[in-house]
Structures are given as C-alpha cells and as structure tokens.
Amino acid sequence: MFEKVVLATDLTPAWEEIVACAAEFKTLGAREFILAHVITVKFLGGMEAALKAEAEPKLAAQKQQLEAQGFRVQVELVSGLPAFALNEVARRHEAHLLVVGPQKTSRWQERLLGSVTSAVLHHAQFPLLLLKARITEDQPEGSCRLKAKELLRHVLLPTDFSDIADRAAMVLEHLASRGLARVTVVNALDVPGGEAYPPGFQEMAVAQAQSQLAAWEERLRQAGIPQVDTVFDPGRPLPAVLKLLEKEDISLIVMGTQGKGFVREIFLGSVAHNVARLAPCPVLLLPPAKR
Length: 291
Description:
Elements: E1 4-8, H1 13-20, E2 32-39, H2 47-68, E3 72-79, H3 82-93, E4 97-100, H4 115-123, E5 128-130, E6 155-158, H5 163-175, E7 182-188, H6 201-222, E8 227-233, H7 237-247, E9 252-256, H8 270-278, E10 283-286
Parallel strand pairs: 1-2, 1-4, 2-3, 4-5, 6-7, 6-9, 7-8, 9-10
Antiparallel strand pairs: 5-10
Helix pairs in contact: 3-4, 7-8
C-alpha cells in the first residue's frame, strides 16, 4: 500500500545506512522512491549553488544504490523549509509515504528528535515513517547493518478506538499479507477516578474498553495476522506505551497523530509526539485523512 515513497535524505552517514537497507521497505509494498534532499540555506548569496553542487554526487550515488536493489528512483533537490518542502515533493509525486530519520551526524543512536525532524512530523500531510535504530557494528559497511530490520516482526498498535486509530488498524490489515507476524494492541483508559464521574462510570468504561479490545483482536486475526495480543492499561497512554517498549521487543509502532483524548494539539497529538521522541524503534504515524 506504500508503493511510492519519499526518502528525505540529509546525506549524512545515517542515511548511508538507511539506503543500504532499502530492501526492507519492500515489506511495506515500496516499488518506487523519490530521493529528496532539502537545502535549508536559501537566501545567502552563492551558498545555495555551492550546497547543490556538493549534494548532487552524493544523491547520484544513493540513487544508484537504490536502483541496484530493484527500485525505480527519482531525485528531488529542492530549497526551502523541510517541513513544507517535503510535503510539496510528496504531493507533486502523489507519494504514499514519507520517510525521515533522526538528526544525528555521528553515531546514529540519538533517541530524541532534532528540530528539523520534529518540524516535519508536526506538519506532515502524508503517512510518515520515522526511522530510529542503531547499527550492527559486526557487519561490513555497504551491507544492511540497521537493527531496525524486519519491520513487520512485532508491531505495537496503540489505540483509543478513534477514527484515526481505526485507520492505523486498517493499515495493519493491509500489511497482513506482507508478512506481518505479530501485533500487540494497547489501550490506556485514562479516566480519572474519584468524584470526577458518576458512580460506576469507571467500571463501565473499563468493561467497554476490554470489549473493544477483544473485537479488535478478532478483527486483526481475521485479517490473517498469526499472533495478536491485547493489553489493557488503566493509566495514561504514554506511560502504557513506554512500559510495553521496555518489556517487549517491538520492531515498529503504528499509530495516528491525533486521537480523541482530553487534549488535542493543533498539528500533532501530544501522545504521538512523545512516542515519536522516546521510542527506540521506528514509528509509522498516520495523519487524519483530511490533512
């Protein structure tokens, strides 16, 4: 379902590792890449031309490496603000997915988002895959050394049963036939106790959430996913997700950018933003369909 993919390369060593592992995207359905590099220095006399001249041979080398792995590749070298320029590239090419990496120019081990990546996440109008992983040092350079291989081995699906969460579940249903091996669905109730609600409200909410979890489990099993687990957490969403990330070997998180919680942010929901910041594994974020 993600046949045409924008790779937002910054031409750092981290992206050399990503390009070497591009075959992993075939599990998501990728057939064609738009290899995009954004030059953010725009209005400095002479600087833009020099940066383009420096970037062109690096882009050509990455393009050649992607083509050697069986992909069709187009190159986009544009100037502007990445958060907006990448959306425009994706729109112009009618892309299905935008891939970004963390800002880290030395060892690719930083878990927190850089300012550019964070801005891209906040303004993304297309499904966005944030790659965050360490490399395996005992593999030769030029081979796939990322520990984020096998994206569909064990997927975590946080849900609040909203429309955007349902869209995330639909993505997993489509990926079931592409080797999706295991899914863990987690729901955090996030309903305060005490006198905030009428007597019995919390018990009713718990029962409803558990019933919905059971229905989602059956739904994903019917889609052909071999192993589906559900987790109900009475607490808040972010701690619930982080606990599972510590306990389980999660290969990918799939979630919507906005849910139906008590607080909504203008562009990116606070839970999705913090999961993207703190998760050690890749995160696939799905914006509302209207964006």
